Amino acid sequence: MGRVGYEMRRLGLRKAYEYLDRDPERNLPNLIEWFDRYAPNGVLQKQRDLFRRIVTEREGNWYQLLISLWDDIDDEVRKTLFENLVINANALAAGIAAESRQKYGCNIPWAISIGLGKEGEEGRLGFDEWDDVIEQAKELGTFMFLFEGGDPLESKEELIALANKHFDCEFMIFTDGKRITEELAAEMLRVKNLIVVLRINGTPEDARLATPTEILRRNKLPFCTYSFYDESNAESFCSEEFYDILAENGVKMSFFFSSFPEDADPAYDVMVNVRRTKPIVPIHFCKDKDIIGGCVAGGRYYCSIDAKGNVEPCFFLRKSDTNVREKTLLEALQAPLCMKYHREVVPCNVEKKSR
Ligand code: SF4
User: Fold this and answer.
1) Which runs of E-coded beta strand occur in 243-351?
2) DSSP assignment letter at 244
3) H or E segment to which residue 228 belongs
4) CB of 297 closer than 6 angstroms to any ligand 1 atom
5) Is 316 a pocket residue for ligand 1 (Cβ < 6 Å)?
6) In what order do the strands lie in the sheet with 111-115?
7) Of 192, 9, 198, the residue nearest 96 (C-alpha)
8) If pLDDT is split at 50, 70 and 90, which confidence band does 167 have?
């Protein structure tokens, strides 16, 4: 489909949101019909089926979670979230990415992780280079970006400038939460396309997150959490109480990575149960076959680019065979490391320690 066709669909879905926003409780069930009309056939079928179930089960935990967005999130931020995440990064991007995947014979990631590094750090990519990578990604069908690596808020000005320029994309900030301030919240309300993802280690020190969550909630900004666990901290994620505390604190979604083998992960079954019963969605990026089909690396759903431009199949692997200063993003996705994930399920050999 040409870009004009995508623009027409974008306009149709924008209208659908305006209609939904007028009375979400009443109009939510109609949204799936609009989505079927404007998103390409067969695209995101699994996710559409799941969404259909959510909007018809009014007493269900996910329906309650969805409706809570109208109370908990700023109106303009929620509108941008819908436009960038639902329309651009999913309904339309999935069609563009499927065409690119077929044309170029490689994975096209749903999200790309951007390692901003520290301002002034030797050899790191600058604003123009990241800007160019994002433009290339959009051409291929990727509209979702994850700022990571240390604390990306150490390069706050650059991060905000990239989000501001690429207003049609959604950006997540993976952070330890120390640099969440009122000033940042004001910037987030201005650019509207940033979501904070707070790191939770499952230790008592996590109580330090009370201040950032208070600032984000008061300003009606969306936020999630992420965790990497191994033998040293897995226990914390095995108790349903842990997820209750997150939900009570306004967390809607939690992302997990772990180094356990597929059949010996002590927390995974708990997460699946929590997902069925509580108003919070835990997603395991390494194992969630139901939602994302297991390990997401190598461009299957995401890949990572570090501060110096090295393209890695996964943020946790620290392996690269291409650099965006020497190759295009497409050439990086067609290089042997990412192509391995295109052809087969690659066993994960992430070291026990998280980055
Ligand atoms: S490579 Fe390993 S850590 Fe990365 S997503 Fe896959 S299973 Fe998870």
Assistant:
1) 253-258, 281-284, 302-305, 310-312, 322-323
2) H
3) strand 223-229
4) yes
5) yes
6) 281-284, 253-258, 223-229, 194-199, 170-175, 144-148, 111-115, 302-305, 310-312, 322-323
7) 9
8) very high
Beta bridge partners of 226: 199, 255
The helix (run of H) or strand (run of E) holding residue 170 is strand 170-175
Does the model's pTM come out above 0.85?
Answer: yes
pLDDT digits (tens, 9 = 90+) for 172-196: 999 999 999 999 999 999 999 999 9
Overall residue count recorded for the chain in this entry: 355
Does residue 256 have its Cβ closer than 6 Å to ligand 1?
no
Q: Is 296 in the pocket of ligand 1 (CB under 6 A)?
A: yes
**Which residue minimizes the CA distance to atom 4 of ligand 1?**
314
CA-to-CA distance for 102 and 79, rounded, in angstroms? 32
Superfamily of 104-343 according to CATH: Aldolase class I (3.20.20.70)
By alpha-carbon position, which residue is closest to atom 6 of ligand 1? 295
Minimal-distance CA residue to ligand 1 atom 8? 286
Domain regions of the chain by residue span: 3-72, 104-343
Query: How many A from CA of 79 to the centre of ligand 1?
Result: 32
Residues 265-281: tens digit of each pLDDT? 899 999 999 988 888 98
Question: Residue 248 to residues 15, 242, 274: CA-CA distances in angstroms?
Answer: 33, 10, 14
